[in-house]
Amino acid sequence: MIRDFQLLMISAMYENGGNTTHRLLDGHPQLFTYPFESQIGTSLVRDALQSMFPVKYRWPVFELAGSGSSDYEAIIDEEAKVRSKTPFVSKFREWPFELTDAGRKEHFLRHLSSGPRTRGRIVEAYFRSTFEAWKDLKRSGRESWYVGYSPIIVVDANKIVTDLPGSHVLHVVRNPWSAYADTKKRAVPLSLDHYLLGWVLCQHHARLYQAQFPGRVHILRFEDILEDPEKTLGGFLTSIGLESSPTLSRPSWNGKPMDTVHPWGTIRVATPEANRATAQELSREEREEVRLRAGLFLKAFGYEDFFGKA
Against a cut of 0.90, is the pTM above it? Predict the structure, then answer.
């Protein structure tokens, strides 16, 4: 079963356009697009990056002697579980979502019981069970791929493509000035040095794994998506054997068009003009420090003259 499971996992450093890209893929007739961030990490993720990135955004680690039931409960998936268990406290409470966590777990256990308990099969069972339990999901009847989004998960892209032979990782990168300016608007923002270290680590892993797994790990610039989402995302999808679609031109949730990706993400207006204006919000000193800390990745992604082209 696992070789027939086709997963497209989206990655992006915070405020780099991952949520927007995720919502642009929603509604595509060939895709089962996860309703929220698919935070499939577990508390057992322990490595050198643990102090840098929340474990909920990482590729999961499971107990060697665990069970299907414990595997399901170990997956953090905070946004979906809060929305299904306690919808009145969820930031998505105003969006219809008919799914019970208990019902999804039943589907999950059924899938997992049909074969060996491997990490790849656990993740596969989790995605399949979500869409089987989602009662008000709008379907085209042509869906063949699953789409997930978990910020920064590109740092685990090697594990994803190894565990799931039919998987691909799409990493989205945004110029670090606009990205940092947007993260400053969070209730508890990261410091400039902390944020840029995370940004650099994500781009390092994206380029590393793209070289190690050509044709499986992909990188798109958020600026190119903003210029023409249907052309940019459509071209990417056709390169991996899917179709382009007019639905790629606007964000949606469960097929319902959205004027803004809020509350899914903090990028409320996804246009090239808004993207550049956001970068201009930084002080001269902040701009120069971002440039210094982003280093050679600015040239690698064509951002060296970002302000010069304004």
Answer: yes
